[in-house]
Amino acid sequence: MISRRTLLKSVASSLPLGFSRQGGPSIAATANQPLIWDVHFHLSGVSGETPEERMSQLIRHADRLGVQRFILSLGVTTGVQDPTPAQVREANDQVLKALRPWPDRAFGFVYLNPNYLDFSLSEFDRCIRDGPMVGVKLWVAKRCNASELDPIVERATTMHAPILQHTWLKVGGNDAGESSPFDFVELARRHPQAALICGHTGGDWERGIRIVRSTRNISIEVAGSDPTSGFVEMAVRELGANRVIYGSDAGGRSFASQLAKVTGAEIVASARRLILGENLRRLLTPILKAKGYAV
Amino acid sequence: MIVDTNVSLSRWPFRRLSGDEPATLVARLRKNNVSQAWAGSFDGVFHKDISAANARLVKDCRAYGQGILLPFGSINPKLPDWQEDLRRCHEEHGMRGIRLHPNYHGYPLQDPVFGELLKLATGRGLVVQLALCMEDERTQHPLMRVPPVDLTTLADLVQAEPRLRLVLSNVYPQLAPAQITPLIPIRNVYFEVSMAERVGAVARLIETFTLERVLFGSHSPFFYFESALFKVKEAGLSEAQTRAVLEENAKRLVSRV
């Protein structure tokens, strides 16, 4: 069993002078290094002319903290809230390009816009059914309680593809198409067989955790908010460790701050292992196996 | 060893935090090789009897600090006779610095009292920490929404006090570049890393503000301590850069007091 102390040592080895090591650790989990898979990863936050260049930069940073695998989504141009089909396709093409050199490190989630349902279904088929991607990313184009999402969720469920939905609970009010965990619960209750991941846990995690608590097919991910003490402890207490998944939202966030939520939490070692990587691997195993990926 | 320039004692009003008991916090800091921690107080953010809050801070640093906690008292220049609080921090408590929360204490930096406070603190040789916020504005309690500090005009004020040593802490990731850009060339402004975000954020801070002006700070126990530590590791710094950020820059700054 890996203790918190052992884990911290493995992540922040030989502090402080060991910081100079530029090369990364092994990408595989070892006896002293847990499986770390990141469910929430973008091509933003770094420079680079091409998706491949950006991906290389991001992975170089991730290697310093021992993050082994990534779920990439959204492409380079992430600022458009309600993208056209052409913009969505371009974003997915960028992800496909970025993934290509890293078949052992990164998987893709296809970005869809439910405001263009027919296009979204054909893009699902292009990137998941007929392509290498393994899940769906939904952002802020349309609130996720809308019925237009149902065919997307049904298709994803058939393929065992998890859906990562951005959610927030901004005290000043969400943006027009931005989902809350309340919206996500409505969707989840219509699709009890779907594998659903509540992105950011609504940001305001003390409310987000309570909102999804009784909806068992929702997992939460911890990405994209401040590393506020107590987040992961509450999540484990209220949801159980098997419903909590590590993600960073890098490059807009650091791997560091988001990883610290898990490694700094006062939880048992087995819970930490689940959150850092084992839960995501379990969730993805059916589709990875179906596509012939090594799990 | 590490100098953590941003820890707080006592209780955050909206959440119990692991480490809001000083003994627990100190044990965690020591376990992580922290040899000195600049300690403010959550009470100093919220309490009107700030003299008592500062006295408790000093007492707790002595009782639990095992020699590593350096108290930084809070000054609220909108309270009557705040100058006496400043005097006590310096003369009675022997503090090396003070911590300011203009947004929680209800004054913009354009308020003349802020300039007066900077002048008096500089005259006493105190390091001034300016906390830009305490938490993400989007997740605050609905009945207590406090926008971050607006840094417009800060550059002019700092340039008027060339002997001032000003540390910006909790430099939140949504801060507009227009707010921070005027401060880049001002050599007596320092930046603490706890809220720096994007991959490799600490390396970017060094590129922007120069190595000697970047200070390690965890914002613990509000944040998980490991966050700031991993940010330094993620940045891929050289040994010399790492030592500067983790320890040397802060030691040099406070030793000049």
Q: Strands of the biggest beta sheet of chain B: in what spatial order?
A: 1-2-3-4-5-6-7-8
Classified in CATH, the superfamily of chain A is: Metal-dependent hydrolases
Beta content of chain B comes to 15-25%
* CATH architect. name of chain A: Alpha-Beta Barrel
Order of helices and strands of chain A: HEHEHEHEHEHEHEHEHH
Radius of gyration of chain A equals 18 Å
CATH class of chain A: Alpha Beta
Number of domains of chain B: 1
The biggest chain-chain interface is: A-B, 48 and 49 residues
Mean pLDDT of chain A: 91
Assembly type: heterodimer
Stretches of chain A where pLDDT is under 50 for at least 5 consecutive residues are 12-27
Shape of chain A: globular
Strand content of chain A: 5-15%
Structural class of chain B, please? alpha/beta
Number of strands of chain B: 8
Mean pLDDT across all amino acids of chain B: 97
Instruction: Report the principal-axis shape of chain B.
Output: globular
